[in-house]
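Hi there,

I know you've been waiting on this one. I reran it after we fixed the sequence typo, so this is the corrected version. Both the input and the resulting structure follow.
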Amino acid sequence: MIWRVLIFAIGAAVVWLAIFRIYPYAHQQLPAVVVLLLLYCMFAYMVIPALIRLFRLFIKPNHIPLYVTTGDGWAADPVNIAVVAHSQKQFIKAMEDAGWYLADKTTFKSTLREAYSIIFNQSYPRAPFSNLYLFDQPFDLGFQKSANDKMSARSRHHVRFWEFGTANPAHETTHFKFWHKHLRHLLHPEKKVWIGAAIDDTGPVGIRWRYGQLTHRNNPDTNLERDLIIGDLEKANYTKSVEVIQAGKPFSFRGQTLGNNFVCDGTIKVVGLKKPLVKTITGRLASKKR
């Protein structure tokens, strides 16, 4: 309670400072609209996130393993798919042959290009994603498929994947045990398992209810997004098997976007990819020679 009161007091002090000191001074130099925009950016992208991070130092989040989180520990996207492949290279090729683009890494340049793509509706099929976390680690691979004719980042299907074999059991111990229990029958020295969180960005403008930051709107039915990925892999003839794992009961949660409630059926669909075609052909030729 002491920490809650202290953080609230710091926030109240910053609000007082903005209203009675910063705004009157800045308004003498700049138009009111510009000052209000600057104050919004200061609070949404600096003050509120900093206060939440301070809050999280003392009060740790208690979240279920069926969704990934923001860096501050808030619930973000539901975990709803897993892919078993022979290598990362095969996984990337399968997704791209199925019509999904590998997302660029988040840099200052790629972030600016993404913003330009959203504002002016310009093509950027490999736009970057913000970092979300599973096992206390950022995602390893991200894929997207544009949902508009311009191939812009305004609306897109997208999925983040974490390679399960690289997860450190020392972090998020409870969650690691949970996923190891459900996926251990898939673990193999010659295969890799990726756990994914797939959602659909349906529009360019949404509000993150905790921070007030701008973000995308989302389709609340994430099961459709998962099935779209599986359907595309099947059309590209990469799917060997699809297994349904009942990881929990059906549930819903608020996620990041104001006014949005994700609806999840509590299952994980596991896609097994076929062996690479090149290796299969090489093996047949070798057998014929012998």
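Quick highlight: DSSP finds seven helices and 14 strands in the chain.

Best,
R. S.
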